[in-house]
Amino acid sequence: MAEVPNKYEIKEVEQKWQSFWEDNEIYKSKINKNKKKYSIVIPPPNVTGILHIGHILNNTIQDIYCRWKRMNGFEVCWVPGTDHAGISTQLMVEKDLATQGIKKEEIGREEFVKKVWEWKEKHGGIILKQLKKLGVSVDWSKERFTLDEGLSRAVKEVFVDLYRKGLIYKGKRIINWDPITKTALSDDEIEFKELKDKLYYVKYPILDSDEYLTIATTRPETMFGDTAVAVNPLDNRYNHLTNKTVILPLVNKNIPIVFDSYVDMDFGTGALKITPSHDMNDFEIGKKHNLPQVNILTKDAKLNENGLEFQGMGVNEARKKVVRKLKEEGYLIKEDEYIHNVSFAQKSGATIEPMVSDQWFVSMKKLAEPAIKVVKEGKIKFYPDRYTKVYFHWMDNIRDWCISRQLWWGHQIPIWYKKDTGEIYCDLKPPSDIENWIQEPDVLDTWFSSWLWPISVFGWENKPNEDKNEQLNYYYPTDFLATASDIIFLWVARMIMAGLEYRKDIPFKEVYFNSIVRDGKGRKMSKTLGNSPDPLVVMDKYGTDALRFTMVYLAPLGNDVLFDIDKTEIGRNFVTKLWNAGRFLLMNKAKIYESDEYGDDVLKDDFTDKWMDSRFNSELEEVEKCLSEYKLNDYTKALYNFVWSDFCDWYIEILKIKIDKYPKSAKYIIDKALKIYEDIVKLLHPVIPFVTEEIWHILEEGRDGKSVSFSEFPEIEKDKINSESEKKFEIFQEIVSGIRNLKAENDIPYSEKCKVYAICSNDIAEKTFDEYNDYIFSLCNLSTLEKIKKLDGDKYLSKVLADFEIHIPFEVNEKQIEKYKKEIENLEKYIANIDKKLSNQNFVEKAPKELIESERAKREEAMGKLKKLKKLV
RNA sequence: GGGCGAUUAGCUCAGUUGGUUAGAGCACUUCGUUUACACCGAAGGGGUCUGAGGUUCGAAUCCUUAAUCGCCCACCA
């Protein structure tokens, strides 16, 4: 038998098993047609990112399912990998080069991309090493990267295919321009922030008239791009301005007044300046009225040659100067304080400038239709369910997806323009006479590779031959996706569309949106606040199992988790408790096995064993239910309570008495307990893999080279669930707690052995008492425990329970009398309440019979108690 | 502006289809170092469920409404 170490050496043990799992590649998955498969693809983190606390929860959830399914005999395949994260990575490298005084334009595209790859080799993949420490049971042999050869090929396949189907087009549109990274962004990559600004009222002179038309704007500096002023056709103030023209101040250009119902009469002056090149709505109005577009900004958001003397100024500087000039020339009427929303780039933080430019788009409507259908039909389920609504709302109003990015790091678009004719060529391979062509310089949005992830990771390089791709046919569709809810549109929805378009099948069956992790005060984790704990530090301090357990324990489905480092104590303490329970059982086993005084006098399963069998199987039922319904924190909570309270506080405590009392049966008693313990360890393995692996190996010799993660998950034995055993045990607990309580209330130390008389109130109490009075005696530390029919004399401390009266011979004190009185008062209130119900005609007529019966029973019980209590006062 | 979620003990949260004297963990109080565990054990105090209406024999639970907090979508210059 393996030696039982005293202390659980967290770091050492976790390190040992992590290496064992990895070195032996035990989680490598092979196609096995005889087994049901269970596959998951990891949400690929940024290749240069580092592990943060949110990753812990997300990956632990996936790991729980992989380990659980594996123990249930599934062929489990969890594919890891990373994302090239176009914008973030390019920004990072640009910044790094800047410290060396190098600008990317100086070294050119090819050299720059080389530098990014070097950066990726040097700094990339750290996050995967960190995930290894977390104990994720992924198949490392299948690791992929969104820019590796195979995935790049898949991206091209899809681009070319969509282009040929007419679903990808190039268009001059107004897009979100990020002046820092100098690229277009999709609508989903920007966010709005409330800003305190000014609303300026500027008058535009009306041609051939003394009149002015006053407009209100927050962006006077864009006036150089104005090509009209719009008013509402129903606005009586401006009826007379039909076919009139205004003179654009400073520029002295004539622009028309147009009438459009879009204009809100109640806002500002009811007159709106129209800048089609630099405002989303103005762009639409401009198109409707055939207005020209005048671009006034350079790619880094400075005024261009159209900006007169303001050319070369940044937007903010230009605004100040333009306002000053307008004031000087008498065009500025007033300025008001104004709070409005301004859009920013999520990644770079730049203020977005809407600009008109040539970009590539995916036409989404047609792709969205089947993707809406599968969710409607319940083929894909979201947890929590409310995200289906969010999904439908976005999908029903889907807009075309701007996929071109003016970056260098990413998949360059497989489009070539003929130098002389401008003819467009689109294919996987460049044209043969490449010298006559120029490739589109733009790269694709990072999500254009991510949306293929569940397909492409299985080796979908060669679409035409996909039928022969065994991996894909076996593992696709995947079974489960765990991700954060903020990428439901960016990623989840698009994967569904891509899956249906390219595999004619959903990419996953169930989507779990895990909680957002916040700090203890409910604030978002952020670098600037410095409130984001480093998971590696936490793992170091408390152990990886502890962190995993705590995160899941605290994270309810659909709500945020408030996480503090200190809270990891929950998991750490639990792991220690589990460990110590095992240590205790094994120590006893060692003692018993080396002595021969323990014979065959076997005490077959007694009431505690029957109770434990029943409880364990109910617990197992609960565990399966929680896991299949994705109630992960209930899964951990159920086991936490079961292990701590039922198994340790009651079962093991009684076991101590049992082996003392029946030494000859000790072997049987300990083995029985160890069997339950081993099953508990298995139930906990999915969430705390390290400690359970260690325990499993200590429990039995000869498990070298094996892993608990491939052992069988316990099966429910329904016939062992027995409500009578549980009821009896509850009555037993009632009297034990009652006596302890009575002692404690009266300052009788637990160590002081005292005398207790018990009167049983019913048959089942009588039976329970007779059978188990030895245990009651020991657990309460008594000198005598006697069953009586009637009490003699009146010098007792007493307690009336549901099934028992207990009495300790003692001088009665005032304090105790007060207690009785208070309890009598409570009982009277309680009974009055029931009487009120029972005397209510409506209740008696309408309530279900069982309920009325149970109310009557409750009343009777309370009355009994009351009578007995009254005797004591 | 539209939608969603939350509001239960000092704190963090459970509470299934309306029917329990409303639960847990942490914190707190008292007792306890009895040979698994002080990262422990035993016992205890503490809430009428954000406010106001309503439905019902019966509401923490259903409806209406208000307030507060949070999130998502839209982006009226």
Summary of the model, kept short:
The chain is an alpha/beta fold and 873 residues long. The chain is elongated.
Please, could you describe this protein's structure?
- With 873 residues, the chain is of the alpha/beta class.
- Helices cover 45% and strands 17% of the residues.
- The chain contains 26 helices and 29 strands.
- A 4-stranded antiparallel β-sheet has the order 6-5-14-16. It has a 4-stranded mixed β-sheet with strand order 10-11-9-12, with helices on one face. A 4-stranded mixed β-sheet has the order 27-26-29-28, sandwiched between helices.
- A hairpin with a 4-residue loop joins strand 5 and strand 6.
- Helix 16 packs across helix 17.
- The protein is elongated and about 115 Å long.
- The chain binds one RNA strand of 77 nucleotides through strand 8, strand 12, helix 7, strand 13 and helix 10.
Radius of gyration: 37 Å
How many DSSP H or I helices? 26
Note the beta-strand portion. 15-25%
Distance between the termini: 60 Å
Q: Could you report the average pLDDT, rounded to the nearest whole number?
A: 90
Point out poorly predicted stretches: none
Helical fraction:
40-55%
Q: Class by helix and strand content?
A: alpha/beta
> Can you list the strand order of the major beta sheet?
6-5-14-16
Shape: elongated
* Largest sheet descriptor: 4 strands, antiparallel
> Care to count the β-strands?
29
